[in-house]
Amino acid sequence: HPPFDITTLLLLGAPRTGDALPSCSNTLSSQTSNVVNSNKLSMRLLRTAALAVTLLSAINTNNVFVDASHVVSGTDARLPMSLSTVITDLEAEGASYVTTAAFLTSRSVRQSESAKLVRSLFGISGAGGHDDEVQYGTTTAFGKKLADSPEAEADESDGGSGVAIACPTCSSPKLGASTSEVTSTVVACGGTVVYVADMVDLGRGEGLFDYFGPALERMLAIRAMASNTEEEEGTTLKPRPSTLIVVFKGLTDKLEIAAARKTWESAASRMLNAIIQPANGASRATKLEDVFDRIEYLSAAEVDVDMQLCPAGGRVSAPDSPASRDPSEVAQSVSDVVNSGLVEDLGPMFEMAAKVPVKQACPRLTNPVDLAAARLLGPLASKALAECLNTVSSETGEDGSTLVPEFGALCDAAIRRALNSLDEVAAGSRFKKSPIAKRIRADLVENLYSEMGDVYEKQVASLREAAFASFRGKLNKLRISPNLPNEMRDAAETSVKEFASAVKKLRVPRATSNGSWMTNSDQISSLRGRFAEHNAERLKAARASGQFKPVPRKGVTVGMHWLLPKPFGNDYRQEPHMTHTADDLVYAPVDGITDVSGNEIRSGDWRRGVVPAPSGGEMMYLK
């Protein structure tokens, strides 16, 4: 930007009261009344005005766009989830396209220096209404609305572009962001990184790739997974174009930047050769150009770096920039990273809804033993898991639906063999106290039971269908009779008992404590309900067709003796005065006892000798 405005240009050569012209102050101050000098002054003013017009026409239109850019919001939430908040704010501001990038530094860049670089590199002057929300070390992400490009100004439906910058703290391994947060953030940003390299780290070759190396390792793994998915399922999972902007702190001279670039590229090649890269047949990345679509090397005095994030080299605010994506698409990328389990220790609520295990936080690699355990035991655990799955799938089939009666014993033997193969190497004294070795074994146990749990569900489904088919076969052998409901109920109970005995053999010991397997009682209860519903439907169909008629209910019989003239008491029509007179019905048993006193009735002893239905000859009516 020019350090002067139009007013300064127009008044550059004009004298003020008490002031003199800069170039000829002595002459004009001594000859102010001379006409010739007045003519020279007029010519100077004309030349100054012409110079002003020329300079104004030479100002780059991009500077106008940059001046109109402003910070929309900042957040201190955890990365990479905080990017979703910033993207939502940019969309609310009217941005039709969003570009994401991660701001990383080497180890020796101090936090105060990083704070200054964030503001200078991304053009945060402090004059904006939300500029105070960007505080490096506290703010984890911020959004900046870019000025409209000429293409966007011509299109009324285009709301312009915005950038969402994630800035995890990389200066302190204890107080700063974890490696998991940085790697997941870089993946969520599509691989676009603004990296500040300190010359101290560059000179000694340490502290450069503490965070950047694991981030590249994860990026290559994600791209390999996307490539495999595209080949197997036929989907078009293409990684987003990425840009790497390297800023050398403290360097402004072009020759110094060129020398630092050679040192940086050499160190980056050694780092790429040391990290773990996917072995899926693709060529191994040996230089940064194999990872990023565009790489730029800038000095620390550069401003408005966010305008140079386009992988194609154009203006990032242009709608056709490869880095500009729809806000919903960028937000979905952040969500996919979180759901894929790349972020550690998200809390119990997320763990319950997560699709993959994310319970434990990854221990930090603090000593060479942990590094050796990760490099040696990691591939062994993956191999043991693959061998276990192959052993089980050879019996159950590729889809796991082939019923194996002794599935529980098969899985138990396969799991034990997988764990023993890992323990043979990890049981040595060098890995005995390593938290990485313990974590790898715990992850292997969890993955084994999780994978076996999926096959177990298919085995139980196959057994359930076989039990239902057997139950229907039992029903087909029944004859339609009044006792058909009871016989169908007995057939259902028999089938449930057979299923309960068979499902116990499908379960792997210690499965409940190592996974979310359904219990046997839940499986049995579910099948019993299915049998009951099937019986009810079959009985309804049999009744509707008229084939089944239930046993009629027995009626209530009342017997009266002809020698008993008044079985229900006195008849008021014959003897109205005897309506309320109590009569006595006396039971005369075989043993000759004809009288039963009131006390005997109350004690109840006489009931032992009374038959349920006494004959008429044993009943006497006394008036």
Describe this structure in words.
By secondary structure, the chain is an alpha/beta fold. The protein is built from 19 helices and 9 strands. The protein has helices spanning 6-10, 25-30, 35-58, 61-67, 82-92, 111-121, 150-154, 179-188, 199-204, 212-233, 254-274, 327-339, 348-353, 368-396, 407-426, 435-476, 484-503, 520-545, 598-603; strands spanning 70-75, 97-105, 141-145, 161-166, 193-197, 243-248, 294-299, 584-587, 619-622. A 7-stranded mixed sheet has the order 1-3-4-2-5-6-7. Helix 14 (368-396) packs parallel to helix 16. It is elongated and about 135 Å long. The protein starts with 5 loop residues before the first helix and ends with a strand.
**Poorly predicted residue ranges:** 1-41, 51-67, 232-237, 347-362, 609-623
Subunit arrangement of the protein: single chain
Please give the number of β-strands: 9
Figure out the total of helices: 19
Characteristic key phrases:
9 strands, disordered N terminus, seven-stranded mixed sheet, single chain, two-stranded antiparallel sheet, 623 residues, 47% helix, alpha/beta, disordered C terminus
List the helices and strands and how they pair.
Blueprint: H1 6-10, H2 25-30, H3 35-58, H4 61-67, E1 70-75, H5 82-92, E2 97-105, H6 111-121, E3 141-145, H7 150-154, E4 161-166, H8 179-188, E5 193-197, H9 199-204, H10 212-233, E6 243-248, H11 254-274, E7 294-299, H12 327-339, H13 348-353, H14 368-396, H15 407-426, H16 435-476, H17 484-503, H18 520-545, E8 584-587, H19 598-603, E9 619-622
Parallel strand pairs: 2-4, 2-5, 5-6, 6-7
Antiparallel strand pairs: 1-3, 3-4, 8-9
